[in-house]
Write a structure and sequence with these properties.
This protein is mainly β. It has one helix at residues 2-14; strands at residues 18-23, 28-29, 32-36, 40-45, 53-55, 64-66, 68-69, 84-88, 93-99, 109-115, 121-126, 130-132, 135-139, 143-148, 155-157, 163-165, 167-168, 185-189, 194-199, 208-214. The chain has a six-stranded mixed beta sheet with strand order 3-10-9-5-6-7, with no helix packed on it. A six-stranded mixed beta sheet has the order 13-20-19-15-16-17, with no helix packed on it. It is elongated and about 55 Å long.
């Protein structure tokens, strides 16, 4: 029984997609997290003071969040308890430092390390053949690596849920989501069952692709004890 519990625990860890950080007076807990590319960090303000989370570079914030994030139509100004904000990170990075703007002098800082993840599929955008392979199937919670194999490309979901190239829209890292000829790759995790059709936005191209996200296979047969 202990073996089965450990196995199930490992499965849950492998598919973890969201890491919670509590915002307190005046610290982040935990102050540093290690995630995989494609994962999300979720901050919730439990403090009485006004807080926010913002990348250290004040000239050009990669993310600045409280009641939503500035680059996502929200308000990243420091706000009182009760706000929740999520940011996804699509590429590996050794360290992403962030602060609470009004309390940086109190040492209210945090950091995120983004590891290169295990992937289930790789899709290469070929200069002549488009998305290769054009259609893939992955289990819920798995990650896909998208790579630009040449030409000016990006990927955008037909239902607008993602838009990515050298980075993604609303990414927690610096990047560019529109078609570009620069070499790029992004990791994306798929957590919702269904079919996603996507395309390249370059008007001179007609690449399309499809991702089927299905439920995980049953590990144990019914009636196993």
């Amino acid at each position: 029984m202990k073996y089965l519990y450990s196995l199930l625990l490992l499965i849950n860890v492998a598919h973890a997609a969201t890491y919670d950080v509590s915002v307190n007076d005046n610290n982040f807990l935990p102050s540093s997290v290690t995630i995989q590319a494609g994962d999300t960090v979720r901050w919730e303000n439990f403090g009485f003071n006004n807080h926010n989370v913002a990348t250290q570079n004040s000239f050009e914030f990669t993310f600045r969040c409280a009641n939503g994030c500035d680059d996502n139509g929200g308000d990243g100004d420091p706000a009182a308890a009760g706000w929740v904000s999520e940011v996804t990170f699509h590429n590996p990075s050794s360290n992403i430092a962030y602060v609470c703007e009004p309390h940086i002098g109190f040492g209210m800082t945090g950091s995120i390390k983004v590891l290169e993840p295990e992937i289930s599929e790789t899709v290469v955008i070929d200069l002549n053949q488009g998305f290769q392979p054009q259609e893939i199937t992955v289990f819920k919670g798995q990650r896909v690596l998208f790579e630009n194999g040449g030409g000016e490309h990006n990927i955008k979901a037909d239902d607008d849920r993602f838009q990515c190239a050298d980075g993604c829209r609303d990414d927690g890292m610096e990047g560019f989501e529109f078609p570009t000829g620069q070499p790029w790759q992004i990791y994306m995790q798929f957590n919702h069952i269904g079919t996603i059709d996507y395309h390249c936005e370059n008007p001179d191209h007609d690449e399309t692709g499809t991702i089927h996200v299905v439920s995980e296979p049953t590990i144990f047969a019914n009636g196993f004890e």
